[in-house]
Amino acid sequence: MPDELVAVTFDGQPLQARKGVKLIDALDEAGIHVPRFCYHPRMSAVGMCRMCLVEVKGPRGVSLQPSCYLDVADGMEVFTESDAVKKAQHGVLEFLLANHPLDCPVCDKGGECPLQDQAFAHGSGETRFVEEKRHYAKPIPISRLIKLDRERCIQCDRCTRFADEVAGEPLIDFAGRGGTLRISTFSNVDFDSYFSGNVAQICPVGALTTTPYRFKARPWDLIQSASTCTQCDMGCQVSLQSSQNELTRMLGIDSDAINHSWLCDRGRFSTSEVNNVEHRVTRPRLKDQDGPVEVSWTKALRAAASTMKRAIDERGASAVAVLSSASLTLEDTYAWAKLASDVVRTNAVDGAADVRIDGSLLLGNPASINEALAARRLVLFNVDPKNELPVLHLRLRAAIRAGLRVVEVNAVPTDLTSIVDRWVPIDPANLATTIDSVVAALDGDLDDVVVMAGCRDRALGTSLNTTLLGELLSRIPRAKVLSGIAHGASALAVGFTPSAPRGIRSSGGVEPSMSADSIVAAALRGEVAVLVVLDSDLMGLGLTEDELLSLNERTTVIALSSFESATTNHAAIVLPMSAYGEQQGSTLNIEWRHLRLGRQVEPVGQARSAWMIAAELASMLGDELGFLTLADITRELAQSGGLLSGLGSHYFSDGLDGPLFPLSRREERRTQRVLDPMATPGVASIERQGANFAAGNVIEPSESPGFALGIGEAPKSLPSVRSSVTAGVMELEPLTEGEYWLSLVPRLYDPSPGLLANPFLKQAIREPVLAVAPALAKELGLADGDHCRLVGAGSTEMVVRHAKDQSLFLAVQGVTPATQQLLGDQSWVKVRVEKSNG
């Protein structure tokens, strides 16, 4: 529905503006920039700084008004260049600078500081104050990632509003009064938030800085390119910045369709692990009787190819298995999917171990993020946005504040449970009743419903998770589905996982049919001769150190990795892979949107892209993948007849996000990205100073394809929803005496090779804990802080923490190698509890 327009007059010019928007936004849209400090387009207006004062004509004449606080009205007359406005701006800046230190040459904000810019543009040019400026001890570490310089703070309230309104974690606030007013944390409580880095990005001065970037570079030293954060499948749009072939920082870009400029700290500070060369795999190596030996690429690839060929000849194609993390680029994923299915022809492939749901349910009637947040009802099914898709958690909070009605369906509560309309706990003893309760919570409003479906709880098996979701969707037949899976969109789209819909690839190759757990179990039994592991650690699948050693004795492990891990330490062949920021490419996010990945630095050592390694191996195995460049892969995907028909980087353009797939899903309006110099000063200032803001496209402009199939052409073989799902809800075997249902849920900072290589984030890794309701803890004789042993398929020890909000489950918080040993092949894992002495 088009916006209603009203007639206004800005500086004597008659114009039209959208009714109801803030005056400051209407002026921006008219090309009239009003200086501001406190205003941010994604937060509430507070009128704190008074820098945006303009003259507005009213019944009593002309008066100064804060433009961030007024809504546009019909007939409004506004003056932004009058003497009164200029005098007000001079006065505000003079008072702000009265106690502001003159340390621009050593301030991290120097060169991209809105206060600096506006002092030049709107200040008087000299000061009347000669008194000693105010001094505070500095810097104050308010968290391990953020430092506060109180002398520079101008009390704009941006950081405190973000913490309270956007993140819902009011851990910083104003303290003191008058001249002693300052930003402060609470006693003995750090600003320990998943989203703390955002306050440094939106700070209009150098009061809040990040520890990893502090004193690292100046804006004029940096180059940047548009890219996408790949720490989860949210697809947050970022500016990736570097200096002297080293990634320096990542800043959020305001994509209206995706992240609204926000980033989580796991993504924002992931550049530090890429730079940590000591933890990177830099050269190919082979293991002989004396240990690992660095070799040339040719020798390593020949060894890998001959090992795979010998296994195929002697034991058949299924003796070669491929396991991969789901964080590869789309092009890497497709290349390895084609190598496994068309060249090796093995069915032992899983490129998305965490996807424990039938992909046809996610692809049948997909919703975009904006559609989900604008629906009348949203159902969150087995998903925890804060720990799996953190920025989506922020967008959900904003949507709920704006009136979105949400029904949450989880085994145990999440951080959203307290603010949703209804929480429906999944009851293993009454699964059918659970589905009935979800449908009843929708109050008969079934016409505009989006179901966001995930695999949060690792204790639920693939079959049960799929059947529950399939039954729910059969009861809401017109519902759209948004994937809530943290990693796996690219693998699902190209058929690189057994969870992908049948026939998603039309090449005629062998389709995956063995899960990661099945592949590892077969390898431990000696049924797999060669196990190729891409950018993953086998201990992350629940193997113990002894099991990993045993597997390497029975199986030849070929590890392709960016980071060192237990798997690379024991593998027979290790091949270095390019890391994030070291290669071009693209990716898909949870709404199946095609997004760019920019190459900002050269690969460390001799690292190569995974698709190049796949192409070389295919050639040495006596076959060809049929592509030599990224453009070749894009052309093949575009002509595949599957989900990605019509794919091409020609859909990327400056200021626009990539398209949704399938291409028949047209968006009404692909909104322009916001590069507000005040909202994202670190991006805009670098662009303004002449540095390159590259598109980061998959295909260079000189290679623009002439094969576009045209927007609107739907894929020819996309499976229909629920095509492979059996209707009805299975019944679980009841608990026996001493058994309890397990809930195993991830946390954002669960250990991984990349996180362990990050010097600034690895301290955030915590040991898993067992959350137990007080009543159940009393029954088990477990006090808060006790140690206990859980016994399932395996066993592990952990600390007990009392939790008020759940009573059915023994809830383990933290997915680690130790906790994954509890999992077996049950539909829902059961465990026993043994008290230990710790």
UniProtKB/TrEMBL annotation:
Q: Which residues form the 4Fe-4S His(Cys)3-ligated-type domain?
A: 84-123
Keyword Cell division in record: no
Q: Give start and end of each 2Fe-2S ferredoxin-type domain.
A: 4-84
The EC number(s) this enzyme carries: 7.1.1.-
Which EC class heads this enzyme's classification?
A: translocase
Q: Which cofactor does it need?
A: [4Fe-4S] cluster; [2Fe-2S] cluster
Query: Which chain positions lie within coiled-coil regions?
Result: none
Record GO biological process? ATP synthesis coupled electron transport
Q: Does the keyword Cytoplasm apply?
A: no
Key words, A-Z:
2Fe-2S, 4Fe-4S, Iron, Iron-sulfur, Metal-binding, NAD, Oxidoreductase, Quinone, Translocase
- GO CC terms of this entry: membrane
One GO MF annotation is: quinone binding
What's the protein here called? NADH-quinone oxidoreductase
In the record, what lineage is assigned to the organism producing the protein? Bacteria, Bacillati, Actinomycetota, Acidimicrobiia, Acidimicrobiales
Q: Which gene encodes it?
A: nqo3
